[in-house]
Amino acid sequence: MPIFGSFGLAARYKGFAKLIQIINQQYDNAVIKLNMPRAHFYAEDSSIKEVRHCLSIPRKPGIILLIHNKFLSNEDLLTYLNSNTMNIFLYDKMGGSKNCISSVIDVALGVRKPLAISDSDMFRNIYDDKICLYKTPISKILETSVEHCEKFREQYSHKNVISKFKQIVLG
């Protein structure tokens, strides 16, 4: 049974509900795992509302939804992501996010697992229709996204980031 996972602070714009709906539409049997910790800067009830909203979404009997809200260590987060068949991030389009890039991609690239995203500007650093869940079926992304993302793993490797930093600082 495929396991689809995502993580991020419990907020509506993260697209957790959309992920549940898409998996429910395309699969009869699957596990959806969401790590949705509460942030101290969100109102507590908004985080709880988002978890309740996700739990209230109708699902087929074979769709299992698991939600937890623990902040994970870096190592535990990588283990969590590696345990999924595919990691999915479906942030909403956010007009004011032109200067922001989501850090979930940095972590997700740390494991060699299929990766699907939305068309949010928050993912413009790796965006391609090939991994956009709104433009490509899950089955196709499962086949091709690991290879597609390999170039980003290389581009954002420790070695290359340090080299680029030295180039900027030292000229």
What is the chains' assembly state?
A: single chain
Low-confidence residue ranges: none
Tell me the total number of β-strands.
5
- Spatial arrangement of strands, main beta sheet: 3-2-1-4-5
What is the succession of H and E elements?
EHEHEHEHEHH
Beta-strand fraction estimate: 5-15%
Characterization of the model:
The mean pLDDT is 91. With 171 residues, the chain is α/β, with parallel strands linked by helices. A five-stranded parallel sheet has the order 3-2-1-4-5. It is built from six helices and five strands; from the N terminus they run βαβαβαβαβαα.
List the helices and strands and how they pair.
Elements: E1 3-7, H1 16-26, E2 30-35, H2 44-56, E3 63-68, H3 74-82, E4 86-89, H4 104-108, E5 115-117, H5 138-155, H6 158-170
Parallel strand pairs: 1-2, 1-4, 2-3, 4-5
Quickly list its features.
single chain; 171 residues; alpha/beta; 5-stranded parallel beta sheet; 6 helices; 5 strands; 40% helix
